[in-house]
Amino acid sequence: MVARCSFWTDSWSTVGPLSRYAPQLFTAISRTGRKRTLKDGLDQNLWARAIVGALTAQVLCHYLQVWELLRGVTLNPLQSDRFIWKWSSKYSASSTYRAFFAGSTTLLGARELWKTKAPPRVKFFFWLALHIQLWTAERRKRHGLQEVDDCALCAQAPETEGHLFLGCVFARELWFSLLLPIGLATIMPEHDEDIREWWMRQLRRLDPSAGPVLDSMFFACRLESLKGEEQQDI
Question: What span, in angstroms and rounded, lies between the C-alpha atoms of 16 and 224?
Fold first, then answer.
């Protein structure tokens, strides 16, 4: 346990800096008390004697929390101070970079998307699609930008990402014309569903060598659907 670090502002405990763990109590500490080291603060509980502010209910609550936390703290005078990097056994630039993504979740299909051979603008478009962030008619209606959410191509169902990519009759017709000549008509979409799950499921079913072919058709089919949608709007 380090002894020379700041009692209040350094991250020596499992809860981080005490000034953040107990902010109301920290505001009630005198200026001198805020500058005390960990060793001085623990000596005869001098940290508690530095409380000079009003003893509100919140201050008392934080006081009890800190007191309970310090009950198990014992300094080792024979051990030198040292910095500990909690993200790995030894500090490195790569571990720092990985720490930025601690707690993040993976997006289904993201890794496969960036490996495809497609123009950057096409990849970005499908990146938005994987995030369900395309401005479809359904989303525009949900945001109050228009009154109806009918598909601009078939006018038979709400225009969602899954419908435009897979469920629309025009999209299915295009899929059939692309997949039939190469013997992959069995994977043709039959109804609206999550485009990420459908894409990943088909990639697992196909031989790895056929993956790039499916990717190219997946992008081409959607872009052709967009062109048809633009013509309908005109």
Answer: 54
Structural tokens at position 184: 């992959």
Give the pTM: 0.52
**Where are the domains positioned within the chain?**
1-80, 110-233
pLDDT of residue 137: 92
pLDDT value at residue 158: 92
Q: Please state, in angstroms and rounded to a whole number, the distance separating the CA atoms of residues 193 and 167.
A: 7
Q: Which residues pair with 91 in a beta bridge?
A: none
Cβ neighbours of 162 (radius 10 Å): 24
Say which residues have a Cβ less than 8 Å from residue 4's Cβ, sequence separation at least 6: 37, 38, 39, 81
Query: In a 10 Å sphere around its CB, with 0-12 CB exposed, 13-18 middle and 19+ buried, how is residue 58 labelled?
Result: middle
Calpha distance 34→19 (Å, rounded):
9
Contacts of 35 (CB under 8 A, 6+ apart): 6
Q: If 0-12 CB within 10 Å is exposed, 13-18 middle and 19+ buried, where does residue 112 land?
A: middle
- Please work out, in degrees rounded to the nearest 5, the angle formed at the alpha carbon of residue 93 by the alpha carbons of 89 and 97: 95
Q: Which of 140, 171, 133, 175 is closest to 158 using CA atoms? A: 140
* Positions in the chain whose pLDDT score sits under 70: 1-3, 81, 208-234
The set of residues, in sequence order, having a beta carbon less than 8 Å from that of 97 and lying 6+ positions away, is: none
- Summarised one tens digit per residue, pLDDT across range 181-223 is 878 778 888 788 888 888 888 878 777 666 666 666 666 655 5
- pLDDT, residue 213, reads 61
